Model the fold of this input.
Amino acid sequence: MSSPARGRFITLEGIEGAGKSTVAAALARDLATAGIVVRSTREPGGTPLAEKIRRVVLERGDEHVSAETETLLMFAARAIHLDNLVRPALARGEWVLCDRFTDATRAYQGAGRGIDPQFIESLTSAVHRGLEPDLTLLLDLPVEVGLERARQRRLAAGEGAVDRFEAEARPFFERVRAGYLDIARREPRRCRVLDATRSPTEVCAAAVEALRGLES
Ligand code: TMP
Done:
């Protein structure tokens, strides 16, 4: 029996409050309706062990965690996620819809924290081993809009505490946003920038449209 065609690997990126979860849910519904088996997942996390690393890296504890260590933890979680979930799913012909991936490391640890891009790219080639997303949707919006949306969401959910990244101030997120836009400019074939200030319905429709053509 011949092995199934490799599935597609789609990643979603953006600053806090960009609406990634809403778009991910809409895309998963649309693909499932088209008869495609979809695995929705996220980073850091996605498998039990990688979710443990997520808790470690997002927690604001007493002990200092350097930006280099933060980067290594992101890649440790990523290596586990790729080995145990993403690669096997793609090999089975499933489509993987991933909420954040390596562009988040480039934007948050690279542009945001100032980690050397060469350090990030050497870890990227070791951990990806040639695997790249087929499509990356960057949900872009002004930082003040995203942060306010994220604040409202935390209030509605009754969540008082902020994590290691949510605790950052606006200039950090301005660097992250600029870092993301820079990646999209350098890789226009892989990355599609969507205006995330529009209504959720409009952004979801634009995301669904952006996936057209990936099946062939
Ligand atoms: P989430 O809130 O979208 O689930 O993501 C968790 C946080 O982790 C978010 O603030 C961005 C951050 N992050 C990085 O800093 N680097 C990474 O490589 C990834 C995947 C996430």
Notes: The chain has a mean pLDDT of 95. The longest helix spans residues 67-91. The CA atoms of residues 7 and 93 lie 4 Å apart. The beta strands are 9-13, 38-42, 95-99, 135-140, 191-195.
